[in-house]
Amino acid sequence: MKLRAAALALAALVLAGALSACKGEEQVIYEEEVRAVNDGKPARLAVEYDPRDKSGLLAELQEIAKKYQADYPQTEIQFVERNASIEGGGTPDIVIDPSRQNVDLAEYADFWASEGNLSAGANYAMHQMGRKTVYSIPMDIQQNLLFYRKDWIDAFNYEGNKTAAEKVNVETWKRLLEFPEKLGEKGQLAISQELSGYLFNAILWSNIGFGGMADPAAPYYAPGEECETIFTSEKALESAELFCQVYQASIEGGALTQEQAVQRFLNGEAAAVIADASLAETLSETMEENTWRGVGLPMGDSGAAIVSCGWWGLGVSDQSEEQEKAIHFLCYLTSADNNIHLAATCGTLPLYKEALMMEPQLKNSPRLPEITLLNQAGYSYTGEPQMFQGFSPSHLANGLYGQGLAQLLAGETSAQALLEKADQTCKEIYRQHIEAGGEIPWLMEEEE
Length: 448
Hints:
This protein is of the alpha/beta class. It contains 18 helices and eleven strands. Helix 2 (57-71) links the parallel strand 1 and strand 2.
């Protein structure tokens, strides 16, 4: 039905273009979608899987492969452990890797766009190397959430005739800072210094906004042809100050491990904690219903929340001898029906915003807070610029800020000094990339 509808729509557009041309108007040319095909000739595809996964994902993938083979019986599909040798030699056709530059799938991107509305997380993961390229399709995303005591906040907000300004909410970082003042001793935040780099970036990016970034996948760099960074802006200095205020409002100034921070929240010693989204499952098992809630991180001055996330995905190896068929199967595997089925059976995060509508049982998923985020306007993702080798773990082992954030919180360095060092580091990585003959994705787009 989808293909038929697409064909009818295309025909209508072509007809409209022809009529416009007859009337002497400028003709509009519509490009036909590029779709991978399976020509039905005998082939074997090897698909990587992670043997450590305990969610039952492999069994579900094998079932999906059987359905595919019912339509394409000449295509044999085998699943092989990641990094394991393949019987008979050769390399996997579909590989697990969120960063390896395999076959660029950008020309096939219309397939996923036609399946549904891609989530912000899916869009970021697919375009991690820049908006013009797609090397992997995400299968799951890992992220942090803000968990808070809904019962405490409701009791405070609905006691008396409070105005909106007098109430407590978690919409912005500045409103989050009102917790201790309004809720008293139990209004403290449980935030560990293990998350300091993550939170510094989240506050900074959410204040700057995508409009102040060169590319959604290069959030440290400012727009323009010159190598400028976001660290020289006034918003960067304000963000560093806000970051310090968030930790000042935290238990022991954030001098906790992540495990200790979670435990303080579980013990009822904190009104909020920032932790991995998987905490939702623990809370649903240990706390009474309607006493807690998990939401995305607060918004910044840009009116958006922009955070980093982890993810893993599948791409097509450039060593594959059956690239077209591998792309065809990858499209089938990540179609809306199959992707949302995997979310319901294996607990992965869906690619598509329509997931909850298509699969109502996801309302019972422990990942419901994340699934709800799929449709939250202004909630987006980014990460360190993976198109530059200098940001890979092997080159930047201690992260961009190193010990600078701990020193900032301890009063051993200034926000200005921290930002200047980050600015210099990013400019040096940019320079090395240019000298090595590397391209700058956002400048290439401007030249086209």
